[in-house]
Amino acid sequence: MPRIILDNSVVDDNWQLITESEQADVDISQLAEGNYLVPLSVWNSLVAELTTPPANIGLWLASTELPEQIQGSISEIPVLAIDFPAFADGRGFSIGRLLRERYGYKGQLRAIGKPIRDQLSYLVRCGFNAFDLAEHYDPEEALTSLKDFSDNYQGSVDQPIPLFRRRS
Amino acid sequence: MYRYDSIDQQIVDDRVAQFRDQTQRYLAGEIAEEEFLPLRLQNGLYVQRLAPMLRVCVPYGMLDTKQVRMLAHIARKYDKGYAHVTTRQNIQYNWPALEDVPDILADLASVEMHAIQTSGNCIRNFTADPFAGVALDEVMDPRPYCEVMRQWATFHPEFAFLPRKFKMAVCGSKSDRAAILVHDIGMALTTNDAGEIGFEVFVGGGLGRTPVIASLINSFVPEKDILTYLEAILRVYNLSGNRENKYKARIKILVRAMGAEAFAERVDQEWKHLKGSESTLTAEEIERMKSYFPTPDYREVASTADTEIESLRSEHQAFDRWLTRNTRDHRQPGYVSILLSLKPVGVPPGDVTAEQLDAIADLADKYSLGEVRTTHEQNMVLADVAKDQLFELWQDCKKLGFASPTIGTLNDMICCPGGDFCSLANAKSIPVAEALQRKFDDLDYLYDLGDLSLNISGCMNACGHHHVGHVGVLGVDKKGEEWYQIQLGGDQGKNASLAKVLGPSFSRDEVPEIIEKLLNHFVDNRIEGESFLEAYRRIGHDSFKAAAYA
After folding, report:
1. Could you tell me which residue, B111 or B346, shows the higher pLDDT?
2. Contacts 24+ apart (CB under 8 A), A11-18
3. Close Cβ partners of B550 (under 8 Å, ≥ 6 residues apart)
């Protein structure tokens, strides 16, 4: 079973990604068993049909898709993943912050695609709490990169109060 | 100047440890080349033609003498004994070894310095007026605000992987000496009718292969809101900037595609959500930052100093020339600012040896309250010099090679490292600068020409700012050979303009004689008191073009 980082530890993960190309062949009735992350278009059509999709279905956003395009109640989504098609594509950092800060999303926010170990501290600060790193990174070893910095200047999701308001 | 507290120090120390670990993992083959690339770039490390190049951050150009001595130490210990002042007020080393860089960063951290975000697709160093705090025409000292912004930009988690690099500059005076209109964001400090402090914000300027003058998108952002406003701009850019084509990825392309007005509206929509948040500056924080830049404890300078200077001037022509070109008026009676020229003939513009750096630190301790500034024209400034010490300082400068009385003349060229060092360059730039300096070495002639900026870039990335030189020289590649395009009529400052290409390019040998033809055309046609740029604007491009190709 694949292993991901979730809330500062490494766990087994059973959420399966349905990609854009697979979606045409997928029928919702086939997704009854197991846990699936579906593309935005599938998610939105499920919402249109069912209002609230079942709890074993989550959503993944491409780096070109914005939270405002998500239909239905964002807070009900069990797992929301954001794709980093290349690790240097930094749109996901803004999308993560928007989901947490503007849309109040409290569920699992996962970075998928090709995020790298050395982005972990930035990702956490943008609200991500789950990380499916590029294959060649050992998630156990990568955990140390979560603690690269002891403090930060800006307000962010994990510490909304900027340093200048916390200096004595 | 700003001093780190224990938290600032810890953050920089954490960064050194992080990069030490990253470098070890890279050398052990655990990080792929393309993944290490942005990590090293965001620590200032390029891989260049001959060796890595390390760019050290000099926040808004301010250095104390302890830092200058450390820069000298690094040049000696890890490099070939010299350093280079860049057009964004930073310091570059051309010969460090990759495996030494973590140690260099640790040495820098020991004097409150770093190389954070001096390269890569992130927010770069904030630049400002090298005469901040002392200039006669200053409205507001930009440095406290630059420091606020520096801290905000340092490891900003959302903006470390932007579509492209992002440069900002802040100006606090009537004339703009920070070239704010050719930055991704340029800010000018101002006050509104109620007397409150704020910023005019210009977006989408830049040089490079598509030079653009920035557009005003907000004429008054209150000081307390500046961070949330910047955050709104950066978010719009991060989400909407072009990521497919690196040549179309700068914010100037986005602003131009959307139109400045539509872009401003998008920013406002985003800002609505951010304005008033915890990131809004507090009066205490602004005061805290201002307290680091107090008016120094100037001493009383005897009023006889002026008459003494006048009599020394009449005795020593060289001193007179140096005073005329290399000093600037100061707001404190009895004081002036002086420019240390880093443009002696035969030395690449902006290069400075370790011994000279140590000597500059000594000069600053002796004459200028222990502080030094770098300028984007690649010189250095001693900002606070008492007039009764000027003659002595001039003699010291002469001995040390900083007294070329050519600031602001043709010979005070801006020049990128070019094909001698840079892997992007199409052509060499340093030999062109040297040939021009040698041809036009007569001081009386240079003074007669008056203020004239000549900027040289070795490729269209425009590190030598050729688009905003009164005369710009651009190295181009034609079938593997180095050629040079000449442009005229550029200017920086509040009325910035972009230079226009003269015509077909020239060989390197031809450049000095073509420049000479252009200068002769100016001298023959100017009217009394007219500068090169004024004459160019009056007579017109075609007239100069005809003279060049005659």
Report:
1. B111
2. A13/A132, A15/A58, A15/A79, A15/A81, A17/A60, A17/A81, A17/A112, A18/A42
3. B517
Neighbours of B521 (CB within 10 A): 20
What local confidence, expressed as pLDDT, does residue B206 receive?
A: 94
Domains, chain A, with CATH or none: 3-165 (3.20.20)
Taking the alpha carbons of B253, B376, B234, A120 in that order, is the dihedral positive or negative? positive
pLDDT tens track for B512-530 = 999 999 999 999 999 989 9
Is residue B71 in some structural domain?
no
Å from B21 to nearest chain A CA?
Answer: 10
Q: Is the pLDDT of residue B50 over 70?
A: no
How would residue B424 be classed by pLDDT, with cut points 50, 70 and 90? confident
Give the model's pLDDT for residue A21. Answer: 74
Residue B401: alpha-carbon gap to chain centroid: 22
Q: How far is B11 from chain A (nearest CA, A)?
A: 7
Tens digit of each residue's pLDDT (9 = 90 or more) over B280-289: 999 999 999 9
In a domain, residue B409? The reply is no
Domain end marker among B236, B269, B294: B294
B235 CA: distance to closest CA in chain A (Å): 7
Chain A positions in Cβ-Cβ contact with residue B11 (cut-off 8 Å): 149-153
Which residues constitute the domain of residue B326? Answer: 304-400
Does residue B487 sit within a domain? Answer: yes
Residue A63: closest C-alpha in chain B: B239
- pLDDT value of position B211: 94
Residues of B with CB below 8 A from A129's CB? none
Task: Tell if the CB–CB gap between A164 and B282 is shorter than 8 Å.
Answer: yes
In a domain, B369, yes or no: yes
Residue A100 forms contact with B (CB below 8 Å): no
Residue of A nearest to B20 (CA): A148
Q: Is the pLDDT of residue A135 over 90?
A: no
Interface probe for B, chosen from A66, A95, A152 (most Cβ of B below 10 Å), is A152
Residue A20: the pLDDT is 76
Locus of tokens 């010490």: B389
- A108: CB partners within 8 A, 6+ apart: A6, A58, A78, A79, A80, A129, A130
Averaged over B305-314, what is the pLDDT? 96
Are β-strands B327-329 and B335-340 bridged in parallel, bridged antiparallel, or unpaired? antiparallel
The strand order across the sheet containing B185-191 reads B123-128, B166-171, B185-191, B197-203, B215-222
The order of strands in the sheet holding A9-12 is: A9-12, A3-6, A130-131, A108-113, A79-84, A57-61, A35-39, A15-17
CA B7 from chain centre, in angstroms, equals 28
Q: Are residues B219 and B367 in the same domain?
A: no
Q: Which residue's structure tokens are 């998008």?
A: B266
What is the CATH number for B435? 3.30.413.10
Cα B311 to Cα B317: distance, rounded to the nearest angstrom = 11
Which residue do the tokens 């709890």 mark? A55
Burial class (CB within 10 angstroms; exposed 0-12, middle 13-18, buried 19+) of B330:
buried
